[in-house]
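Just curious: can you write whichever protein you like plus the matching structure tokens?

***
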Amino acid sequence: MKRVRFGIIGVGSMGSGHARTMQKVEECQLTAVCDIDEEVAKAVGEEHGVKWFLDYRELIDSGLVDAVIVATPHYFHPPISIYAMKKGIAVLSEKPIAVTVKEADEMIKTAKETGVPFAVMYQNRSTGYAQAAKKLVEEGRLGEIYRTTLISTYFRSQAYYDSAGWRGTWKGEGGGVLINQAPHALDLFTWIGGLPSKVLAKTKTRRHKIEVEDEASAMLEYPNGATGYLHTSTNEAPGTNLMEFCGEKGKLVIYNNKLYFWELETPIQEFCEKTDQMWGSPKAKPVEVPIPERETGHAAIMRNFARHILYGEPLLTPGEEGINSVELINAVILSGAKGEEVSIPVDREEYEAFIEEMKAKSKEKVVKKVRRETDPQHRV
């Protein structure tokens, strides 16, 4: 079987999980790893019997890889990815593809100019419920969407934020829950329901000793006049994963990874205008939606990316679609900071100036003990 030779850049946390997952993907062969921490790079390299590097440029230039997974802290995704693309190396970037939309633009531009395969690790798109939801919308089963809701909440302890100098800081992370925990949910939300055109947000640091937000809420307006709402935080236990998409012909709900769909006998506006019933409403019929059985998780994205390189299989998570979540993240953060409505597309130069200002204010963080541990919920 043909295999794509992969290097993983950044193996102290998520990257080490990717290295283990890759062993189960027949189309992939791990041939090199890289990390700025020599002890970590050596340990992971020796664990998998591959060459290890301290400089990503040396790995990319080594001739050992056809593709790289970029699993570093957020700010390093664009420069590493762009360097690899210009060297003809395919790129699978961890989420988000960039901290700012301007940097995301540059990554997408470089991918188009070089013709190098580019994807983003949004593994939730591989799930059966997400694929079924996307199909319902594409088939027009909801009709025009007039309301959306996203509630995506998590819990993170102070120990989590204290585990590394980059976590919870503007200089190291470029944001909080919006840019770290929420991107997967924001990707599905915009993939299924589209990208809003205006955002009015509030962001807070409610529970943790960090520089960035651990809670964000926003009202959304869409190009067709539809309204939406989102809320995310790292302050809740148990967490919630809820999405609603209300359309003229039906309602789609994803709740804790389960899909529910109701179809209306008569579209909302038609019923509203034609009924003579004072207290009536359109009849809604629950519909059992077939959920395809398929491989999910990081392995599914790796396999799809490798098969795209080898056989031209369509990408599940094209890199250029990674900008949608970055647009929404930047818009919510900027709106929360300004206390006023922000339009999408986000003003590139305004956001660059904002993030540079926040980085300049960012304080050096003292960490008693660095802990580079893979999330135990890492899906293989």
Q: What stands out?
A: DSSP finds 13 helices and 15 strands in the chain. The longest strand covers residues 145-153. The chain has two domains: 4-123+296-318, 125-293+325-361.
